[in-house]
Amino acid sequence: KQEVTQIPAALSVPEGENLVLNCSFTDSAIYNLQWFRQDPGKGLTSLLLIQSSQREQTSGRLNASLDKSSGRSTLYIAASQPGDSATYLCAPYSGNTPLVFGKGTRLSVIA
Amino acid sequence: NAGVTQTPKFRILKIGQSMTLQCTQDMNHNYMYWYRQDPGMGLKLIYYSVGAGITDKGEVPNGYNVSRSTTEDFPLRLELAAPSQTSVYFCASGPTYEQYFGPGTRLTVT
């Protein structure tokens, strides 16, 4: 059974800092991995999807990497802004079951 | 496109009451999902469907029922509501593994 861990559980940084969020998963036989953002009281919004054949995927100030063999993914946020404050969740997809979500990292960017 | 819509946004139920949470998507997605999210516990899958007429249990199906008679709609039924079902419920849809989420329904059972 796939288990997903996200570290840290919460993070507070000053505006402008670069930061890294970590995601680890136990079953490395995945097809892809998604990163989501959740604002308080809202649903999830998909940020990035990395296929198992890719090592990186970029969207604006966000860069996600995937190391399938070690069961790890990282989300790098450059030049953080207060508007980046949210909870970030990762979800690997193994093909035979629906997505399994981590508990998320709650990010606060202080102006 | 409206995407994934959920109704109601908020609801308070008394113990033992029943209700249906509605979910509709207008993206012609085959896959639809119901999750619950409790504080600090992450998202847990209740039920999912890979197409009209096909449903399957997720991680926490007890106390819930679903049906999928059309591609667009995937209602979640709570029978005999219990305080343990107090949660935020999210519906999602997708062409396959990609998922698009609705805004959620906040349910309190007292």
Explain what the structure shows.
The complex is a heterodimer of chains A (111) and B (110). Chain A has 111 residues and is an all-beta fold. In chain A, 0% of the residues lie in helices and 55% in strands. In chain A, a hairpin with a 4-residue loop joins strand 7 (62-67) and strand 8. The radius of gyration of chain A is 13 Å and the shape is globular. Chain A starts with a strand and ends with a strand. Chain B contains no helices and 11 strands. Chain B has strands spanning 4-7, 10-13, 19-25, 31-38, 42-51, 54-57, 64-66, 76-78, 87-94, 100-101, 105-109. In chain B, the strands form 2 sheets. In chain B, strands 2, 4, 5, 6, 9, 10 and 11 form a 7-stranded mixed β-sheet that branches. In chain B, strands 1-3-8-7 form a 4-stranded antiparallel β-sheet, with no helix packed on it. Chain B is globular. Chain B starts with a strand and ends with a strand. Chains A and B meet through strand 5 of A and strand 5 and strand 10 of B.
